[in-house]
UniProtKB/TrEMBL annotation:
Highest taxon of source: Bacteria
InterPro entries: FAD/NAD-bd_sf
Pfam families in alphabetical order: NAD_binding_8
Database matches in PANTHER family: DEHYDROGENASE-RELATED (PTHR10668:SF105), PHYTOENE DEHYDROGENASE (PTHR10668)
Gene3D superfamilies given in the database record: FAD/NAD(P)-binding domain
Protein name, entry field: Phytoene dehydrogenase-like protein
Length: 474
């Protein structure tokens, strides 16, 4: 029987393990931390019984993942829950851009921009299951559905600022800005529209779902399936150098590129080692979790029903904040993402005390504070919020990186998603999962299609590993 070692137990590492194990490979997953999950973990914090997601929280791309949907993970406890409203982006006048799963319902709330929103998203959302084959993989390859991909891909190539010019309503522009800002990129850069368009299209097909009980349910279900397939998961095993790796026919790394270079050392071809060590990381996240009594008193009614709330004001304000953090400056009013997962999944709350998940975009490696800036942004759109907070837990970019070394400098995207790295991954190649040593592969979110708990980076890396085994007759 062929053997495989997977280093790292995030969604991509576990997905790689499942693909290999289903093909009859004996799989061992090694995790440095004492618990599995990487960025997809859930813990009790602040108040006993209050459940907070450590990093990833809202999952339109995971719910849409063709790999996860094919696994019937409900057998292992994964149950998707949907809020009444997917996302709200409040403005200072009390209005909000409101995103529903339904394209038609969303368009109906966007005034004169409704027809434009429908033209942009109705077709791609309806055909997302076919589109996903192309967008959730390496972009530089012959597409399976070229016409469908072109319809989606042409606007995705544009800066988010250019796409936003198609809209006339401030709430529509702001709504699009907030989703595009998930890419941690200046909104005037080419391809900065791509991540936002991908999230919106997947969300219009499957909704901005959350797993019942927390994001840890995703990795918990994958690990349970892997064990049923005969695989093993070992925690508390840190791989620092090649000598720490057990002998195996294939090795798959769910690590940041520089960490792979550190592990493999001189075994790695020099040009690949240079590319991995020169891999660029983007701005960081400053995470603030709250325990809130009675929920958040948002001025905009839709925000009180939304699983996700984006705080940043107008498109111009969000764009200015993203430019600042990209240049290493901390804005007075950073872009803040707020998760109200408990609205779809009430078991995360304790009585009338609810877990509020949030983080601000900050410069890479930001060593200063941002707690007050986050609170001020929430208070801006929900006067009286401070009075309802009964507890706070803070994690700086350094603490985020310590908790998950893939997130260098607090970069929860596992690398800057600029044009080159979004298209190619950590090095210029048509095979971004190959590390240049036969039988060794990279599957972290540094590779296409990038961040999210969808597992597709792991799927593609494992597929390359299986091709290698077939070539070797293993």
């Amino acid at each position: 029987m062929s053997t495989a070692v997977v280093v790292g137990s995030g969604p991509n590492g576990l997905a790689a393990g499942v693909v290999l194990a289903r093909a009859g490979v004996e799989v061992t997953v090694l995790e440095a931390a004492d618990e599995i999950g990487g960025g997809a973990r859930t813990v009790e914090a602040i108040v006993p019984g209050l459940r907070h997601d450590r990093c990833s929280a809202i999952h339109p791309m995971a719910a849409a993942s063709p790999f996860l949907r094919a696994l019937d993970l409900g057998r292992y406890g994964l149950e998707w829950r949907l809020p009444e409203v997917d996302c709200a982006h409040p403005l200072d006048d009390g209005t909000a851009g409101v995103l529903h799963r339904s394209v038609a319902e969303t368009a109906a709330g966007l005034g004169a921009d409704g027809p434009r929103w429908s033209r942009l998203f109705a077709g791609p959302a309806a055909g997302f299951d076919r589109l996903a084959v192309d967008v959730l993989g390496p972009l530089l390859r012959v597409p399976h559905h070229p016409v469908r991909l072109a319809r989606f891909g042409v606007p995705a190539l544009l800066p988010a600022a250019v796409v936003a010019k198609a809209f006339t309503e401030q709430r529509t522009k702001a709504l699009f800005a907030g989703v595009a800002a998930h890419g941690f990129r200046p909104l005037g850069r080419p391809l900065s529209a791509s991540i936002g368009l991908g999230i919106l299209t997947a969300g219009h097909r499957y909704g901005w779902a959350v797993p019942a009980g927390g994001s840890g349910a995703i990795t918990g279900a994958l690990a349970a399936l892997l064990r049923d397939l005969g695989g093993r998961v070992e925690t508390g095993v840190r791989v620092r150098r090649a000598a720490d790796l057990p002998r195996a026919d294939v090795t798959v790394f769910d690590l940041a590129p520089a960490a792979v270079a550190d592990v493999l050392g001189d075994r790695l071809p020099a040009r690949i080692a240079r590319a991995y060590r020169g891999f660029r990381h983007g701005p960081g996240a400053f995470k603030v979790d709250f325990a809130v009594e009675g929920g958040v008193p948002w001025t905009a009614g839709a925000a009180r029903r939304a699983g996700t709330v984006h705080l940043g004001g107008t498109f111009a304000e969000v764009a200015a904040a993203e430019r600042a953090v990209h240049r290493g400056r901390m804005p007075d009013r950073p872009f803040v993402l707020v998760g109200q997962q408990y609205l779809a999944d009430p078991q995360r709350s304790v009585g009338d005390v609810h877990p509020l998940w949030s983080y601000a975009h900050v410069p890479h490696g930001w060593a200063g504070g941002a707690t007050e800036a986050v609170i001020a942004q929430v208070e801006r759109f929900a006067p009286g919020f401070r009075d309802r907070v009964v507890g706070i837990a803070v994690r700086s970019p350094a603490q985020i990186a310590e908790d998950d070394p893939n997130f260098v400098g607090g970069d929860i995207m596992t690398g800057a998603k600029d044009v080159r790295q979004l298209l190619f991954g950590p090095r210029a190649t048509l095979t971004p999962y190959d590390v240049g040593i036969p039988g060794h592969y990279l599957c972290s979110a540094a590779t296409p299609p990038g961040p999210g708990a969808h597992g597709m980076c792991g799927v593609h890396a494992a597929t390359r590993a299986l091709a290698h085994l077939r070539e070797r007759g293993r």
